[in-house]
């Protein structure tokens, strides 16, 4: 089946709906988010405008998830590339908090829909964990980190990062960034 290219107007409407969905999920959580709530936030006259672009809530959630993931990964990757594992770990942590600082609703929505998204590319949490554990092993091999189980330490680090995201509305992110980096530095030793 041939699909026609979406017009500029259709692309803009889809983007408007995705932005409204992100804000709605961040505020209400996944279970409470409905096409009606999204339409209200987007200023749309009808949920039919959402249904025109997205078959159902699952398709919209998948698009939202992929959109946030792509922007998040690009943001973090731009800030990586340090010459040491310790430097790379610190850059990763600071980039995560910087993205959160600039895109809090995105990060909240991402965490809230992660378990519901069908397009998890084999498991985002698993790929984050695998990459972080590999970085920790590399740092151990280079003598930058103390001896510890890299898989377990990766779980702890990601849990701390996710905790900051979930509580970010009530926390000073400058303090969070400083304490997160310090806690991970103390935990990984050297």
From TrEMBL:
InterPro entries noted in UniProt: Homeodomain-like_sf (IPR009057), HTH-type_TetR-like_transc_reg (IPR050109), HTH_TetR (IPR001647), Tet_transcr_reg_TetR-rel_C_sf (IPR036271)
Alphabetical list of SUPFAM superfamilies matching this protein: Homeodomain-like (SSF46689), Tetracyclin repressor-like, C-terminal domain (SSF48498)
Keyword Lipid metabolism in annotation: no
Domain HTH tetR-type: 17-62
Pfam families to which the protein is assigned, alphabetical: TetR_N
Gene3D superfamilies: Tetracycline Repressor, domain 2
Keywords, alphabetical: DNA-binding, Transcription, Transcription regulation
Protein name, UniProt field: TetR family transcriptional regulator
């Amino acid at each position: 089946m041939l699909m026609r290219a979406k017009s500029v107007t259709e692309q803009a409407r889809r983007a408007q709906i995705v932005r409204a969905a992100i804000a709605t999920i961040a505020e209400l959580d996944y279970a409470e988010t409905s096409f009606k709530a999204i339409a209200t936030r987007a200023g749309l006259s009808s949920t039919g405008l959402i249904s025109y672009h997205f078959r159902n809530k699952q398709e919209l959630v998948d698009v939202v998830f992929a959109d946030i993931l792509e922007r998040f990964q690009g943001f973090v990757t731009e800030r990586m590339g340090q010459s040491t594992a310790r430097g790379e770990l610190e850059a990763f942590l600071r980039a995560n908090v910087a993205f959160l600082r600039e895109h809090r609703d995105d990060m909240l929505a991402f965490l809230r829909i992660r378990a519901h998204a069908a397009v998890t590319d084999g498991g985002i949490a698993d790929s984050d964990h695998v990459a972080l554990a590999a970085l920790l092993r590399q740092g151990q091999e280079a003598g930058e980190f103390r001896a510890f189980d890299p898989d377990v330490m990766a779980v702890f680090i990601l849990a701390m990062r996710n905790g900051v995201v979930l509580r970010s509305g009530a926390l000073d992110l400058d303090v969070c960034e400083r304490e997160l980096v310090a806690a991970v530095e103390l935990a990984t030793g050297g």
